[in-house]
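pasting for ref. prot 1 ->
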Amino acid sequence: MNYQPKHHNTLLLFTLFVFFQICLSDSFAQTKLNINDNWLYLENHTSNLSEAQKNQNWVSLNLPHTWNAEDATDLYPGYRRDASWYQKKLTISQIDKNKIYSLYFEGSNITTKVYVNGKEAGSHIGGYIGFSIDITNLIKEGNNDIFVRVDNSYDIEIIPSQKSDFFIYGGITRDVWFVSKYKSHIENLKITTPEVSAKKASVQIVSSIANPENSKELSLTVTLKTPKGKKSLAKQFQFRIKPQL
């Protein structure tokens, strides 16, 4: 196996012939903490973070949330196409310098801008796919202030079309997670079964390694289990980084 120390390296790890289902070890898995509860909401379109922070009209809620939930029954025609703010106190007991930390939004409609401890952490356009915001360099141990501005205003530059025949509900409309994982980690895991028969099955695993240059040695342990959970086979694969010439 030969690969160069780039940020992402696609690896054809191995092909195994097995009689049982495949189950990979959790050793490379990321840690995810759901943070849907105990948010504050401000229905105000200001784009100024300081102005939003000083506002006294914040109300408590839990996510997911949309400010269009009651538009069909209120006294105002149409539905609200504007911006609003969310905030949360995120308590982090310990920060590991060997890990990267992010906020993962499963969905936020349509444009989203995230601030952590008064500084902009990142932004995203689009309400139909999830996205991650790296907050590693902005967080501290203890309480952290998270502010999120979401906007579903009319904008001809943003898909979907403003003439769409469905509602574009604004807000953080799906779950939000606090995610941590080691700087050198396995990602983009893809498992396929090119050959399956009554006697044997071919299992192919393709993956990427992020930041391999930060570790002298990397390894992956794969465990094969029966459908009842009994271990059938365990094998460790070792990878060594070769310097780029």
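and prot 2 ->
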Amino acid sequence: MSMEYRMRRTLPSDRVAIIMPVDHGLIFNRIEGLETPSAPFATWADHDVTGFMMTPGQVKQTESFFARNPQLTRVLTLDTYYDHTQLDGGGAHRLIATVEDAVRMGVDAVKMLFPWNISNAERAALCERVGKVVSACDAWDIPLVLEPVLIGAPRTQEVIEEEEQVARIAYDLGAHIIKIAFPGEERTRRLVEELRVPLVIAGGPLAGPPEDTVDAVAQTIRAGARGVIVGRNIWQREREVAEKVLAEVATLTHQVGFGDRDSQ
């Protein structure tokens, strides 16, 4: 398979992708709404999502389901981080799977955290780790989704500004897709225009009323992002509310196409 093929599957050209992350058990252990790790796929697959962000265990346990639903894409999470509640070097980032594992499993893309509120020595080691993963992804023609983040930090203006700067480092390291917490419509548009690699926006933890989630997605799409990553703001809500939110989000994602472009 080629990089172009996998990129088109991960980020379709006829709409904005909706990728539902359900890989939270790697960091949060048993989390509300995800008590049975294999349950979300059948639950949400028929609600116009384009794919899921998954752990190695989930990929292995759901092979038959995805064989029956080849329209759904799979993004494999390659790493984990402890402790996510620490703000300054209190945790450790490690790989839990390889790019070769991902190719063998037949997934469409891989994803890594890029936590930046760590020491300079840890940053250097992290950049080295990411560089090796990028090289392997290029060799195996599989996209890397890299996620600049300040682990555990509150969403202050300073944090948002720093994550925007770290997104540039992710670009310089060779990320094929950049995933970032929603920094606002203007900053999203600027990242799209300046970096010119596909940008996907993460919804983050459950927060605010449903209309806030829909509005953030609308801003994301207007700004030119290629995908939205919505998980806890869907599956941690009451089922009826969650279905309504996802339906509204899905409607928005069909209002934009990207022609034959593979990237911004």
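The chain has a mean pLDDT of 91.
The two ends are 22 Å apart (CA to CA).
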